[in-house]
Amino acid sequence: MGSQGTSSNPAMAIRIIKANPDLEVVKTDDKAGEITIRDKKSGEVTTVSYNDISQGKFKMKSASGEEVTIDATNQNGAGNVVVKNKEGTTVIGGDQTATAPPAWVPAYPGVQTKTGGMRSEKGDKVSGGFISETQALRPR
Q: How far is residue 114's CA from residue 9's CA, in Å, rounded to a whole number?
C-alpha cells in the first residue's frame, strides 16, 4: 500500500468500515494510528490499528481489553496467517512445519504430507487439518 495505504490515509480505513452497514466509527486517533468502531447489532466496541493493517497485521482490542491479533504478512514466504488470542494460536497456510499434525497422530503408510493446512493450539489441546497424498488409494 505504500504511502497511500491506510496507515497514512485513515480516511481509507474509515470508508472501508462505513461500507459495512452493521458498523459505525466511534472515533479515530491519528496520533495512535487507531480507529474505534462499534458493532450496531451487538453494541460491542473494538479498537483497530490502521497502521498495522497496511502491513498485513490486524490487532483488535475490545472495550473489555481482550485482544486478537492476525498476522497475514506471509511470514518469510511461508504463506501463513497466524491468529492469536488469550485462548491460543491458530496457523492457517502453506508452511508444512507450522501446520503439521502432532507427532502422536499416526500416518498412513507411504503418505507424503503436502504443504498447507491448519493447526490450532489452545492450552494443551491441538486441533486442525492437513493435506497428504498416497499412491495406495488411487482408483484403478
A: 40
- 4 phi and psi angles, rounded to 5 deg: -100, 10
Whether 6 has a pLDDT exceeding 60, the answer reads: no
Cell match 504430507: residue?
A: 113
Residue 3: its pLDDT value, please?
A: 38
Task: Tell whether the model's pLDDT for residue 88 goes beyond 50.
Answer: yes
**What is the biggest distance separating any 2 CA atoms in the chain, rounded to whole angstroms?**
65
The model carries a pTM of 0.58
Burial level of 22, CB count in 10 A (0-12/13-18/19+)? exposed
Q: Radius of gyration (Cα) for the chain, nearest Å?
A: 20
Nearest to 117 by CA among 103, 133, 128, 106: 128
Q: How many CA atoms lie within 13 A of 137 on its CB side?
A: 8
Average pLDDT for 31-49: 85
Q: Distance of alpha carbon 93 from its chain centroid, rounded?
A: 10
